[in-house]
Hints:
Layout: E1 2-5, H1 10-24, E2 30-34, H2 36-46, E3 57-61, H3 85-93, H4 96-106, E4 110-113, E5 118-120, E6 124-130, E7 133-140, E8 147-149, H5 150-157, E9 162-164, H6 170-182, H7 210-218, H8 244-255, E10 262-266, H9 275-288, E11 291-295, H10 306-319, E12 323-326, E13 333-334, H11 338-346, E14 351-353, H12 360-369, E15 373-375, H13 386-397, H14 400-456
Parallel strand pairs: 1-2, 1-4, 2-3, 4-9, 10-11, 10-13, 11-12, 13-14, 14-15
Antiparallel strand pairs: 5-8, 6-7
Amino acid sequence: xxxxxxxxxxxxxxxxxxxxxxxxxxxxxxxxxxxxxxxxxxxxxxxxxxxxxxxxxxxxxxxxxxxxxxxxxxxxxxxxxxxxxxxxxxxxxxxxxxxxxxxxxxxxxxxxxxxxxxxxxxxxxxxxxxxxxxxxxxxxxxxxxxxxxxxxxxxxxxxxxxxxxxxxxxxxxxxxxxxxxxxxxxxxxxxxxxxxxxxxxxxxxxxxxxxxxxxxxxxxxxxxxxxxxxxxxxxxxxxxxxxxxxxxxxxxxxxxxxxxxxxxxxxxxxxxxxxxxxxxxxxxxxxxxxxxxxxxxxxxxxxxxxxxxxxxxxxxxxxxxxxxxxxxxxxxxxxxxxxxxxxxxxxxxxxxxxxxxxxxxxxxxxxxxxxxxxxxxxxxxxxxxxxxxxxxxxxxxxxxxxxxxxxxxxxxxxxxxxxxxxxxxxxxxxxxxxxxxxxxxxxxxxxxxxxxxxxxx
Length: 457
């Protein structure tokens, strides 16, 4: 039995769910723990998912307190208004007793946990508008306080081994660890991977204590599900779960278009463009004259209203049949969240990278270095402007030599990923099985010793 405990974001939950489905086919029983609103999303997706097995995959609700400003519908990172992240983190930390009770009740052979199960003695999350984007800075550490992982410590107190599962790329950890140890990223062995001053996610990284950069890995038992030690494969959702009505709209739009003439635009479920950036992207699409499918999201329960609605309606009238704005499709003018990067590579689609925050700039530079995409240049103030967005789009769609080279590289990478997918999952399965069996054996020995000791008294 394995218990999985991802952070409360779809970009973490579904990468946790995919290997759960594959492990269930190998007779593992998986308990996936999250909040009610996130479990509802899984239940909705599994209805059309032939690979989901209710017998071997169990959903377990994590009860977190409903704060006044944080009703249950916001017990998730998906579409969370940017100012409510501090409240979600606070409520999540207050759920430790619920998690502990779940762990005792299930008593799994192994816990697989996520990076964001953290407690802070002092935590202040803040938001700010920067570069014309609603930019949410994850956390600011005051006085370089020590970060302690919640989930593995609770598991350890109950004699349950735990493994850290990385939903982020290994390059990110390597770069941040280098900054932590060396004081800056200038001497990182791969010059193509770098961060600008305005892109540093945690300004206190280089001064933090030893647990900060890779503290999660220290608490992980024996293996880490990242890097070459235990590669899990791409973990792309293997499902027919989609909105048929929206799919019909998209296929109707694409049916009369030439191949490689359409761009997809999406910034994930956790990031929201400002009004100014929406206008710049729209103007860039008009400059290019390309076909497009654009996912536009707003935080929480907000809809397209006022200026945004009026502008986008007018914009669609001008471009007529060249584009479609939809409420939920994966896109490849991307913010470069790791899940989006993996989807692009898996399906062989080049990326036009517009990173916003956190690990995304590192991912964007990795895409460029691999030759499978381009990064949109920013103005000196950090704003993405129409001319440079259009330039990046044209480079991947219009410039023939660059287009063909990029598509060929992306296609080869896609083939390589798919070729290794089954092998990687088999290796993961065997390593997890070894740890589970080792724990069972240790438990049996402890019980045996306890039984003999009790009999002699």
